[in-house]
Amino acid sequence: MQFGLSEEQIMLRDNINRFLDDNSSLDRVRAFADGGDDADIWAGLSELGVPALLVPEEQGGIGLTPLDAAIVAECLGAHIAPTPFLGTAVMAPTALAASDGDHDALLADIAAGTHRVGIAFGEAVKRRNDAHVEVRGEHMFGTSLFAFDADADSYLVADQNKHLYLIAASDPGLQRTHLTTVDKTRRTVELTYDSVTAQCISRDVKVFEAVLDIGRVAIAADTLGAAQNMLDQAVQYAKQREQFNRPIGSFQAVKHMCAEMAAQLEPCRSMVWFAGHALAELPEEARVTACHTKAHLAEVAQFIAKTSTEVHGGMGFTDLVGLHYWFKRCGANRQWLGAPEFIRQEAAVLQGLVTD
Amino acid sequence: MDLSFGPEYETFRSEVLSFLANNADKAPKGNDLRGDAAKGWQKLLIENGYTCRTIPKEFGGYGAEPDIIKSRIIAEEFSRARVNAGLGGQGISMLVPTLLEMGTQEQKEQFIRPTIMGEMLWCQGYSEPGAGSDLAALSTAAVLDGDEWVINGQKIWTSTAQIADWIFCLVRSEPDAPKHKGISFLLFDMKTPGIEVRPLVDMTGHANFNETFFTDVRVPKHQIVGERGQGWQVANAILGHERETLAPANTAQTRVNALVDLMKNETADGARLVDNPVYRDRLMKLQGKVMAMRFNELRVLSARLNPGQDPGLARMISKLEGTELRHDIEGLAIDVMGEIGLAYEDNPHLRGSGSWQREYMYFLGLIIGGGTSQIQKNIISERGLGMPREPKFEKAS
């Protein structure tokens, strides 16, 4: 019995972290936030095999597990790295590998890092005002909001029937408009479809669910990394900053805030590991676990984002320290692919406590 | 990641299951610490290695090599079958491990066998009115007079003192030494003249604890564990372990499952409480937290089995998070029942034998006892996160 990361997984984590330390510093993220692109970061991660992680070996990938993807997601969250990881490396390969169609060429391109797939799942997860997706025959009409990312070559779109479609970013009927959000570490777009050619990937609800679940676990892992980083920064700051001739970290008012953050966050690590493991190995537990993991991480991260900022005092509120990038990343993760209240409702339905 | 215990352990599990199937009817019911049924059951469990498993045979135990997985399987299956898992109490859970680690051969021979067989019941004399979170400030005095210690002072929170045969007690034997170095760990008979036990009724309405007073209590000099002044180390040899086991996640899971059943059965205006989205969301939040704590414990277990694995802060946070979580679970059950949730003692509308209110209060006690939540936060921040210690104030002289 061994509940934890293997030596290979620790090595994977260390490699990705080392790369991101050098290539996704806060200054580099600021450059992206100011309008730059993420091409060099993604190219570097592609060399390390990140987009190939979940692509099966037969299609030119590495064929690793959802837990490995969660490990990488945690590193990306810790470094608030701007990358198309969630759609391109996690959700699209899962959808394409489960699809009946032949997607070998596309999967090979994804694995090589030369093709980015964005995701537009709002319609199937929770449709909001101003959005509506409709597929008639082989053509898509309507609008998706907050599709991620902005520079994708194609998009995986889910409609209300939980069918999955692939559309090309170059389709003449597609309009793509940048949507500003508070989270400047990743860019989202509005997609308007005017008879866009829609290639059906799956009509099987189970495929949609598998793609959604792994996406949620990856977001939870990203949140884990971001929240841990905020806690680490707060502890570091509290040890250095002096007031009343003492480091503020020696005041119980401050150290207890840090202890509360640590106490809530530490179990989240085990939860993300288990959720990643369950996706591949424990199908009966996987869905409920994915729901609870995404929702619980969202709540813990909300507390940590606020509290770690408070530990920094006025500096935490400034752009100078840059803590707000992590704050906003946690905030975006909370809403993406289902807000915690809706996800907990899903968890209750999955257990048969209520009907939908 | 490998969550299986392997075929050897599945064989062991089926042995435990068949033992339970054949013998569960002999198990005592309720919380009897002293009856013949409890002692007979204890003897049977020891003979089969289902309790006192790693205590050496020469002291009356089963004498097995430590095996965390087997211990866990035993605990899991007894709990699942809701069968009494043998005698507990502070003698067995705290004094016996302490003696095994720090006691003399004579002490081990004299005390361990009767303790684990239920012949000798112990209470713990640690906390004092003036020494709670700051336990090392304890002031109960022990002065050597010839071949005897003479003890004067007062202990508090001494559970089972009213029925205990013996006490293991921290006393100040070296008043001039620094506070952590002036404490000794003594063992003595509760029938010794000069001991008075007064029950301490707590918020549950029951006397779960006592106050214990010592007036010129004379104790033979050799009834000390460790050396003079070493009592703090003796007590701390096993104190950390106690904290981890106060609020295990498996029990929290059992309570959440019971809460789900409660919410399916209780209604308000004819509608099941589980169908109310507000209460249901609170339930789901707690279910998610319990899930996180279960996996946190799995990580602690794994780190014990695989010495290279880093448990991070997983062990250190379990008392704080576990006790607060249980208080919240019991509290939600009370909330969903509304006025019925207030029922207590002989109320005919009681649900779950009144366990929800009882545990709700009891876990507030555990949030405070065994190192308060605030002390836990000091430990987590100072030892876990490496934050600076609170500046110390020396006693004004």
Overall average residue pLDDT of chain B: 93
Quickly name the level 1 CATH class of the largest domain in chain A: Mainly Alpha
Overall number of domains of chain A: 3
| CATH third-tier fold name of the largest domain in chain A | Butyryl-CoA Dehydrogenase, subunit A, domain 3
Low-pLDDT ranges of chain A: none
CATH fold annotation of the largest domain in chain B: Butyryl-CoA Dehydrogenase, subunit A, domain 3
Can you tell me the CATH superfamily of the largest domain in chain B? Answer: Butyryl-CoA Dehydrogenase, subunit A, domain 3
The spatial strand order of the largest sheet of chain B comes to 1-4-5-8
Q: Pairing-aware structural class of the strands and helices of chain B?
A: alpha+beta
Number of helices of chain A: 13
Count of the separate structural domains of chain B: 3
CATH class of the largest domain in chain B: Mainly Alpha
Tell me the radius of gyration of chain A: 20 Å
| Residue fraction in strands of chain A | 5-15%
The helical percent of chain A reads 55-70%
Distance between the termini of chain B: 58 Å
Q: What kind of sheet is the major sheet of chain A? A: 4 strands, mixed
CATH hierarchy: architecture of the largest domain in chain A? Up-down Bundle
Shape of chain A: globular
| Order of neighbouring strands in the sheet with most strands of chain A | 1-4-5-8
Provide key terms for this protein.
heterodimer, A: 356 residues, alpha+beta, Butyryl-Coa Dehydrogenase, subunit A, domain 1, Butyryl-CoA Dehydrogenase, subunit A, domain 2, Butyryl-CoA Dehydrogenase, subunit A, domain 3, 3 domains, four-stranded mixed β-sheet, four-stranded antiparallel β-sheet, 13 helices, 55% helix, 15% strand, globular, B: Butyryl-CoA Dehydrogenase, subunit A, domain 2, 12 helices
